Amino acid sequence: MELLYASCVGVLVSCGIFLLLRARTFPVVLGLTMISYAVNLFLFSSGRLTTNKAVVLGTSADYADPLPQALVLTAIVIGFAMTAFVVILAIRGRADLGNDHVDGHLVSSKYKVKK
């Protein structure tokens, strides 16, 4: 189980970094989202992966740790807000520059500098 989680986190991080290094804004947003999913999996696995444990206190002697679940829920909310903010920045950059390149090169004929 731990090997599966570790490989999933590794694949998500590597794909996220690959997409972050792209020149367009949409792959960058997808890369940030994949990295946030990897962080969520990592936080969830930090509470020791166990099976057949009670979720509610008092129903069994052994119970699941609620702290990693709370951390993952908080990370999901923060990841959603971050994704929404980055999408708005990408839309604004596209509207202002006329293209969606991350480095901001002005390719549009409307913005070309006359020599």
Describe this structure in words.
By secondary structure, the protein is mostly helical. Helix content is 63%, strand content 0%. The protein contains three helices and no strands. Helix 1 packs antiparallel against helix 2. The longest helix has 32 residues, at 66-97. The chain is elongated and about 60 Å long.
Quickly count the helices.
3
Radius of gyration: 20 Å
- Name the beta content range: under 5%
Shape: elongated
Number of E strands: 0
Order of helices and strands: HHH
Mean pLDDT: 82
Helix content: 55-70%
Q: Given the helix and strand composition, which structural class is it?
A: mainly alpha
User: How is the main sheet built?
Assistant: none
End-to-end distance:
63 Å
Q: Please identify the oligomeric state.
A: single chain
Low-confidence runs of at least 5 consecutive residues: none
Secondary structure elements and pairings:
Layout: H1 2-20, H2 25-45, H3 66-97
Task: Describe the structure concisely.
By secondary structure, this protein is an all-alpha fold. 63% of the residues lie in helices and 0% in strands.
Offer a few descriptive terms.
single chain, 115 residues, mainly alpha, 63% helix, 0% strand, elongated
